[in-house]
Amino acid sequence: MIDENGEKRGVLPIQDALALAEEAGLDLVEVAPNANPPVCKILDYGKYKYQAQKKAAEARKKQKTVEVKEIKMRPTIDTHDYEVKMKALKKFLSKGDKVKVSVRFRGREMAHANLGRELLERVVGELDADEVKVELMPKMEGRQMVMILAPK
After folding, report:
1. Quick one: how far is CA 41 from the chain centroid?
2. 149 secondary structure, DSSP code
């Protein structure tokens, strides 16, 4: 048993430990039930629960959720449109988000899937290889070719 000041009291019967906790006006809490013998501590359980809750909330707040942003292109994209999409793509990657780049094919464009692959390879070529990794190489999914990029 450990008392309210953090000092070890040794092995005590449960009745004696409960009496000491009641005398201090606090609770007897089992902190290590699997130890042999089990370890109990005298503390204010309400305060202990509150602090544990605050610690968990702080850990959740510091946690970064990774979003997957999507950039959609066509195989016949114009240069200015391409530059605008690349600017947005770089912004997403700098914020730490993953980016799904998809090239959508319509009608007869399906016969020229190589144009979409070349476009995606051009996208990867323009990005700094030290800062970006390709998580999913370009592959066809129905009528679109998809590639996923992630910041390093």
Report:
1. 35
2. E
Which two three-digit tokens encode residue 102? 């998809």
DSSP state of 107: G
Angle ∠(25,27,32) on CA atoms, nearest 5 = 150
**Count of Cβ atoms closer than 10 Å to residue 20 Cβ:** 17
148 and 132 in contact (C-beta within 8 Å)? no
Whole-angstrom Cα distance, residue 30 to residue 41?
6
pLDDT means per 10 residues, the chain with 152 residues, are 86 89 89 88 91 92 84 93 94 91 92 90 87 89 92 87
Buried b (16+ CB within 10 A) or exposed e, 59-84: eeeeeeeeeebebebbbeeeeeeeee
Q: Is the pTM of this model over 0.70?
A: no
One-letter identity of residue 15? Q
Quick count: other Cβ atoms within 10 Å of Cβ 10? 7
Which residues, at least 6 apart from 23, have a Cβ–Cβ distance to it below 8 Å? none
Residue pair 101/73 in contact (Cβ under 8 Å)? The answer is yes
